[in-house]
Amino acid sequence: MNELDHELFEAELRELKPARPPAELMDRLVAAQPGANLRRPAPTETWRCLLRWLAPAAALAVVAALLVWWLPTELRPHRTRSSRAAGDRPAGADGTDRDRKQLAILDTMAQRSSAEPSYRLFSIEYHLSAVNTLGAATFRDMAGVQYESRDSSPERFLPSVKYTREL
Amino acid sequence: MDDPPTPAEWRCWLEEQAPKFLLFARQQTRSEADAQDVVQEAVVESLHRLGHRLPPPALVLATIRRRAIDWARSEDRRRGREAAAIPPGPAWFDTGVEDRELAALIRDAMGRLPENYREVVTLKVWGGLTFREIAGALGIPANTAASRYRYGLAELRKLTKPVLT
Protein backbone atom coordinates (compact mmCIF):
# COMPACT_ATOMS: atom_id res chain seq x y z
CA MET A 1 0.00 0.00 0.00
CA ASN A 2 1.80 3.10 -1.20
CA GLU A 3 1.36 6.59 0.16
CA LEU A 4 -1.23 7.61 -2.44
CA ASP A 5 -3.35 4.51 -1.85
CA HIS A 6 -3.08 5.17 1.83
CA GLU A 7 -4.37 8.71 1.50
CA LEU A 8 -7.14 7.78 -0.91
CA PHE A 9 -8.35 5.04 1.35
CA GLU A 10 -8.19 7.34 4.35
CA ALA A 11 -10.23 9.97 2.49
CA GLU A 12 -12.81 7.35 1.57
CA LEU A 13 -13.15 6.32 5.20
CA ARG A 14 -13.54 9.94 6.29
CA GLU A 15 -16.51 10.28 3.93
CA LEU A 16 -18.44 8.14 6.33
CA LYS A 17 -19.73 10.23 9.20
CA PRO A 18 -20.32 8.67 12.61
CA ALA A 19 -24.01 8.14 13.23
CA ARG A 20 -25.86 10.69 15.32
CA PRO A 21 -26.59 9.28 18.78
CA PRO A 22 -30.17 8.28 19.54
CA ALA A 23 -32.41 11.12 20.70
CA GLU A 24 -32.71 9.58 24.13
CA LEU A 25 -28.94 9.73 24.66
CA MET A 26 -28.76 13.27 23.27
CA ASP A 27 -31.44 14.31 25.76
CA ARG A 28 -29.43 12.78 28.59
CA LEU A 29 -26.29 14.56 27.44
CA VAL A 30 -28.06 17.89 26.99
CA ALA A 31 -29.43 17.51 30.52
CA ALA A 32 -25.89 17.03 31.78
CA GLN A 33 -25.07 20.58 30.68
CA PRO A 34 -22.18 21.99 32.68
CA GLY A 35 -23.34 24.26 35.46
CA ALA A 36 -27.01 23.64 34.55
CA ASN A 37 -27.84 23.95 38.22
CA LEU A 38 -25.50 26.92 38.51
CA ARG A 39 -27.02 29.07 35.79
CA ARG A 40 -24.80 31.77 34.35
CA PRO A 41 -24.98 34.79 36.65
CA ALA A 42 -26.69 37.95 35.41
CA PRO A 43 -24.53 41.13 35.38
CA THR A 44 -26.16 42.39 38.59
CA GLU A 45 -25.42 39.07 40.24
CA THR A 46 -21.85 39.36 39.09
CA TRP A 47 -21.57 42.75 40.80
CA ARG A 48 -23.19 41.42 43.93
CA CYS A 49 -20.78 38.53 43.87
CA LEU A 50 -17.87 40.93 43.41
CA LEU A 51 -19.06 43.11 46.27
CA ARG A 52 -19.32 40.06 48.47
CA TRP A 53 -15.54 39.80 48.55
CA LEU A 54 -14.75 43.42 47.71
CA ALA A 55 -16.29 44.77 50.92
CA PRO A 56 -14.24 42.57 53.27
CA ALA A 57 -11.18 43.20 51.11
CA ALA A 58 -11.66 46.97 51.45
CA ALA A 59 -12.12 46.65 55.21
CA LEU A 60 -8.93 44.60 55.36
CA ALA A 61 -7.09 47.23 53.35
CA VAL A 62 -8.23 49.95 55.78
CA VAL A 63 -7.02 47.89 58.74
CA ALA A 64 -3.71 47.29 56.99
CA ALA A 65 -3.33 51.02 56.26
CA LEU A 66 -4.07 51.86 59.90
CA LEU A 67 -1.48 49.31 61.02
CA VAL A 68 1.09 50.75 58.65
CA TRP A 69 0.37 54.23 60.03
CA TRP A 70 0.37 53.10 63.63
CA LEU A 71 3.48 50.93 63.58
CA PRO A 72 5.99 53.67 62.73
CA THR A 73 4.46 55.75 65.51
CA GLU A 74 5.16 52.92 67.90
CA LEU A 75 8.67 52.58 66.61
CA ARG A 76 9.32 56.32 66.80
CA PRO A 77 11.02 56.27 70.26
CA HIS A 78 13.94 54.29 68.85
CA ARG A 79 14.35 56.54 65.85
CA THR A 80 13.94 59.72 67.91
CA ARG A 81 16.46 58.58 70.44
CA SER A 82 19.03 57.72 67.84
CA SER A 83 18.54 60.99 66.00
CA ARG A 84 18.72 62.94 69.20
CA ALA A 85 21.84 61.13 70.23
CA ALA A 86 23.58 62.60 67.25
CA GLY A 87 22.34 66.14 67.88
CA ASP A 88 21.43 68.21 70.87
CA ARG A 89 20.82 66.82 74.28
CA PRO A 90 17.19 65.91 74.89
CA ALA A 91 15.01 67.95 77.13
CA GLY A 92 14.33 65.86 80.19
CA ALA A 93 10.90 65.94 81.67
CA ASP A 94 12.27 65.83 85.15
CA GLY A 95 15.02 68.39 85.04
CA THR A 96 16.33 71.63 83.70
CA ASP A 97 18.00 72.00 80.41
CA ARG A 98 20.24 74.69 79.29
CA ASP A 99 19.81 75.74 75.76
CA ARG A 100 23.31 76.69 74.87
CA LYS A 101 22.51 77.99 71.42
CA GLN A 102 19.80 80.26 72.77
CA LEU A 103 22.18 81.38 75.48
CA ALA A 104 24.78 82.35 72.91
CA ILE A 105 22.30 84.43 70.94
CA LEU A 106 20.98 86.24 73.99
CA ASP A 107 24.50 86.75 75.23
CA THR A 108 25.41 88.53 72.04
CA MET A 109 22.30 90.65 72.24
CA ALA A 110 23.08 91.58 75.80
CA GLN A 111 26.54 92.63 74.87
CA ARG A 112 25.25 94.80 72.10
CA SER A 113 22.65 96.44 74.23
CA SER A 114 23.80 99.85 75.29
CA ALA A 115 21.16 100.26 77.95
CA GLU A 116 22.58 97.79 80.39
CA PRO A 117 26.26 97.49 79.58
CA SER A 118 27.24 96.59 83.04
CA TYR A 119 25.23 93.37 83.04
CA ARG A 120 26.31 90.34 81.19
CA LEU A 121 24.04 87.46 80.51
CA PHE A 122 25.20 84.68 82.66
CA SER A 123 22.82 81.92 81.80
CA ILE A 124 19.41 81.11 80.61
CA GLU A 125 17.72 77.99 81.86
CA TYR A 126 14.60 76.38 80.64
CA HIS A 127 12.53 74.52 83.13
CA LEU A 128 10.41 71.97 81.42
CA SER A 129 6.93 72.46 82.77
CA ALA A 130 4.82 70.20 80.55
CA VAL A 131 5.43 67.09 78.55
CA ASN A 132 3.27 65.80 75.76
CA THR A 133 3.15 62.03 75.56
CA LEU A 134 2.93 60.96 71.92
CA GLY A 135 2.60 57.25 72.44
CA ALA A 136 3.42 54.38 74.69
CA ALA A 137 4.01 50.74 74.03
CA THR A 138 4.61 47.77 76.24
CA PHE A 139 7.19 45.24 75.09
CA ARG A 140 8.10 41.82 76.35
CA ASP A 141 11.55 40.45 75.59
CA MET A 142 12.58 36.82 75.03
CA ALA A 143 13.14 36.31 78.75
CA GLY A 144 9.60 37.48 79.45
CA VAL A 145 10.68 40.76 81.01
CA GLN A 146 8.12 43.43 80.31
CA TYR A 147 9.00 47.05 79.86
CA GLU A 148 7.26 50.17 78.69
CA SER A 149 8.46 52.60 76.11
CA ARG A 150 7.07 56.13 75.99
CA ASP A 151 7.58 58.69 73.33
CA SER A 152 7.19 62.21 74.60
CA SER A 153 7.95 65.69 73.45
CA PRO A 154 8.49 68.80 75.53
CA GLU A 155 5.50 71.07 75.38
CA ARG A 156 6.17 74.11 77.56
CA PHE A 157 9.34 75.67 79.01
CA LEU A 158 9.65 78.32 81.65
CA PRO A 159 12.80 80.31 80.94
CA SER A 160 14.88 81.58 83.78
CA VAL A 161 17.39 84.22 82.78
CA LYS A 162 20.32 85.15 85.00
CA TYR A 163 22.68 88.08 84.54
CA THR A 164 25.91 88.92 86.16
CA ARG A 165 27.00 92.45 86.85
CA GLU A 166 30.16 93.37 85.09
CA LEU A 167 32.65 95.38 87.01
CA MET B 1 -13.23 29.88 27.62
CA ASP B 2 -13.49 30.05 31.40
CA ASP B 3 -17.26 30.24 31.78
CA PRO B 4 -19.50 27.23 31.49
CA PRO B 5 -21.01 27.10 28.00
CA THR B 6 -24.46 28.50 27.30
CA PRO B 7 -27.20 25.96 26.49
CA ALA B 8 -26.76 26.77 22.79
CA GLU B 9 -22.98 26.28 22.91
CA TRP B 10 -23.43 23.05 24.82
CA ARG B 11 -25.94 21.65 22.33
CA CYS B 12 -23.77 22.68 19.40
CA TRP B 13 -20.71 21.02 20.95
CA LEU B 14 -22.68 17.83 21.57
CA GLU B 15 -24.04 17.75 18.02
CA GLU B 16 -20.48 17.86 16.75
CA GLN B 17 -18.72 15.60 19.22
CA ALA B 18 -21.25 13.07 20.53
CA PRO B 19 -21.30 10.98 17.31
CA LYS B 20 -17.51 10.48 17.57
CA PHE B 21 -17.79 9.59 21.24
CA LEU B 22 -20.53 7.06 20.66
CA LEU B 23 -18.74 5.46 17.71
CA PHE B 24 -15.67 4.93 19.84
CA ALA B 25 -17.69 3.74 22.82
CA ARG B 26 -19.54 1.22 20.67
CA GLN B 27 -16.22 -0.35 19.77
CA GLN B 28 -15.08 -0.41 23.36
CA THR B 29 -18.17 -1.96 24.94
CA ARG B 30 -20.23 -5.06 24.43
CA SER B 31 -23.66 -3.55 24.14
CA GLU B 32 -25.35 -0.42 22.89
CA ALA B 33 -26.69 0.33 26.36
CA ASP B 34 -23.19 0.09 27.83
CA ALA B 35 -21.82 2.33 25.08
CA GLN B 36 -24.38 5.03 25.77
CA ASP B 37 -23.87 4.86 29.53
CA VAL B 38 -20.11 5.04 29.09
CA VAL B 39 -20.43 8.10 26.84
CA GLN B 40 -22.62 9.89 29.34
CA GLU B 41 -20.38 9.06 32.28
CA ALA B 42 -17.24 10.07 30.35
CA VAL B 43 -18.72 13.39 29.28
CA VAL B 44 -19.88 14.23 32.79
CA GLU B 45 -16.56 13.16 34.32
CA SER B 46 -14.57 15.22 31.82
CA LEU B 47 -16.72 18.27 32.50
CA HIS B 48 -16.18 17.98 36.23
CA ARG B 49 -12.46 17.59 35.75
CA LEU B 50 -12.32 20.83 33.76
CA GLY B 51 -14.52 22.82 36.11
CA HIS B 52 -17.55 22.72 33.80
CA ARG B 53 -15.71 24.06 30.75
CA LEU B 54 -16.01 22.27 27.43
CA PRO B 55 -13.48 19.43 27.50
CA PRO B 56 -11.20 18.66 24.56
CA PRO B 57 -12.47 15.61 22.61
CA ALA B 58 -9.21 13.75 23.31
CA LEU B 59 -9.92 13.89 27.04
CA VAL B 60 -13.46 12.55 26.63
CA LEU B 61 -12.29 9.76 24.30
CA ALA B 62 -9.58 8.74 26.76
CA THR B 63 -12.16 8.75 29.55
CA ILE B 64 -14.52 6.62 27.44
CA ARG B 65 -11.77 4.04 27.00
CA ARG B 66 -10.93 3.96 30.70
CA ARG B 67 -14.59 3.75 31.68
CA ALA B 68 -15.20 0.96 29.17
CA ILE B 69 -12.30 -1.02 30.62
CA ASP B 70 -13.71 -0.50 34.12
CA TRP B 71 -17.10 -1.71 32.96
CA ALA B 72 -15.57 -4.74 31.28
CA ARG B 73 -13.75 -5.64 34.47
CA SER B 74 -16.96 -6.39 36.27
CA GLU B 75 -17.64 -10.13 36.19
CA ASP B 76 -20.81 -10.19 34.08
CA ARG B 77 -19.48 -7.81 31.44
CA ARG B 78 -16.08 -9.46 31.12
CA ARG B 79 -17.65 -12.63 29.76
CA GLY B 80 -19.24 -10.61 26.98
CA ARG B 81 -16.03 -8.76 26.18
CA GLU B 82 -14.08 -11.97 25.86
CA ALA B 83 -16.42 -13.07 23.09
CA ALA B 84 -14.38 -10.63 20.96
CA ALA B 85 -16.64 -9.99 17.97
CA ILE B 86 -18.62 -6.79 17.96
CA PRO B 87 -22.31 -7.65 18.22
CA PRO B 88 -24.83 -6.47 15.69
CA GLY B 89 -26.46 -3.24 16.70
CA PRO B 90 -27.30 0.23 15.53
CA ALA B 91 -25.53 1.65 12.50
CA TRP B 92 -22.18 3.19 13.24
CA PHE B 93 -22.33 5.66 10.38
CA ASP B 94 -24.85 8.11 8.94
CA THR B 95 -25.40 6.96 5.38
CA GLY B 96 -27.65 7.45 2.42
CA VAL B 97 -29.19 4.44 0.72
CA GLU B 98 -26.23 4.10 -1.65
CA ASP B 99 -23.66 4.08 1.17
CA ARG B 100 -25.46 1.69 3.43
CA GLU B 101 -23.67 -1.35 2.02
CA LEU B 102 -20.33 0.36 2.27
CA ALA B 103 -20.97 1.42 5.87
CA ALA B 104 -21.94 -2.13 6.78
CA LEU B 105 -18.77 -3.40 5.12
CA ILE B 106 -16.57 -0.98 7.05
CA ARG B 107 -18.32 -1.80 10.28
CA ASP B 108 -17.78 -5.49 9.68
CA ALA B 109 -14.14 -5.00 8.72
CA MET B 110 -13.52 -2.80 11.75
CA GLY B 111 -15.00 -5.51 13.92
CA ARG B 112 -12.45 -7.95 12.56
CA LEU B 113 -9.47 -5.68 13.16
CA PRO B 114 -7.36 -6.36 16.25
CA GLU B 115 -8.57 -4.05 19.01
CA ASN B 116 -5.31 -2.09 19.30
CA TYR B 117 -5.47 -1.24 15.58
CA ARG B 118 -9.17 -0.55 15.61
CA GLU B 119 -9.06 2.03 18.37
CA VAL B 120 -6.18 3.94 16.76
CA VAL B 121 -7.91 3.96 13.34
CA THR B 122 -11.16 5.14 14.90
CA LEU B 123 -9.54 7.90 16.93
CA LYS B 124 -7.55 9.11 13.93
CA VAL B 125 -10.11 8.88 11.12
CA TRP B 126 -13.37 9.68 12.89
CA GLY B 127 -12.17 11.14 16.19
CA GLY B 128 -9.94 13.62 14.38
CA LEU B 129 -7.14 13.27 16.95
CA THR B 130 -3.44 13.72 16.25
CA PHE B 131 -1.01 10.88 16.93
CA ARG B 132 0.17 12.76 19.99
CA GLU B 133 -3.40 12.99 21.32
CA ILE B 134 -4.03 9.33 20.51
CA ALA B 135 -0.85 8.43 22.36
CA GLY B 136 -2.08 10.38 25.38
CA ALA B 137 -5.52 8.82 25.27
CA LEU B 138 -4.25 5.24 24.96
CA GLY B 139 -1.13 5.58 27.08
CA ILE B 140 1.24 4.54 24.30
CA PRO B 141 4.14 6.30 22.53
CA ALA B 142 3.18 8.47 19.56
CA ASN B 143 5.36 6.36 17.25
CA THR B 144 3.48 3.24 18.29
CA ALA B 145 0.21 5.01 17.60
CA ALA B 146 1.44 5.97 14.12
CA SER B 147 2.63 2.48 13.25
CA ARG B 148 -0.56 0.87 14.58
CA TYR B 149 -2.51 3.27 12.41
CA ARG B 150 -0.59 2.30 9.27
CA TYR B 151 -0.93 -1.42 9.98
CA GLY B 152 -4.58 -1.01 10.88
CA LEU B 153 -5.35 0.93 7.73
CA ALA B 154 -3.54 -1.65 5.57
CA GLU B 155 -5.44 -4.45 7.25
CA LEU B 156 -8.73 -2.64 6.82
CA ARG B 157 -7.91 -2.07 3.18
CA LYS B 158 -7.33 -5.80 2.68
CA LEU B 159 -10.64 -6.62 4.31
CA THR B 160 -12.55 -4.16 2.14
CA LYS B 161 -10.55 -4.48 -1.08
CA PRO B 162 -13.32 -5.93 -3.26
CA VAL B 163 -15.41 -2.79 -2.71
CA LEU B 164 -13.13 0.11 -1.86
CA THR B 165 -10.14 1.50 -3.83
Describe this protein's structure:
The complex is a heterodimer of chains A (167) and B (165). Chain A is an alpha+beta fold. Chain A has two domains: 47-87; 89-167, no CATH class. Helices cover 47% and strands 28% of the residues of chain A. A three-stranded antiparallel β-sheet of chain A has the order 2-3-4. In chain A, a hairpin with a 5-residue loop joins strand 3 (119-140) and strand 4. The longest helix of chain A is centred in the middle third of the chain and has 44 residues, at 43-86. The N and C termini of chain A lie far apart (133 Å). In chain A, 5% of the residues are buried. The N and C termini of chain B lie far apart (42 Å). Chain B is globular and about 50 Å long. Chain B has two domains: 1-87, no CATH class; 96-165, Winged helix-like DNA-binding domain superfamily/Winged helix DNA-binding domain (Arc Repressor Mutant, subunit A, Orthogonal Bundle). Helices cover 70% and strands 1% of the residues of chain B. Chain B has 165 residues and is an all-alpha fold. The model of chain B has no long low-confidence stretch (mean pLDDT 83). Classes of the chains: A alpha+beta (167), B mainly alpha (165). Chains A and B meet through helix 1, strand 1 and helix 2 of A and helix 1, helix 2, strand 1, helix 5 and helix 8 of B. Strand 1 (17-18) of chain A pairs antiparallel with strand 1 of chain B.
**Largest beta-sheet characterization of chain A:** 3 strands, antiparallel
H-E order of chain B: HHHHEHHHH
Shape of chain B: globular
* Principal-axes shape call of chain A: rod-shaped
Number of domains of chain B: 2
DSSP summary: helix tally of chain B: 8
Largest sheet of chain B: none
State the share of residues found in helices of chain B, binned by percent.
over 70%
Mean pLDDT across all residues of chain A, rounded?
A: 68
Q: What structural category arises from helix and sheet content of chain A? A: alpha+beta
Segments of chain B where pLDDT lies below 50 for 5+ residues? none
**What is the average per-residue confidence, as pLDDT of chain B, rounded to a whole number?**
83
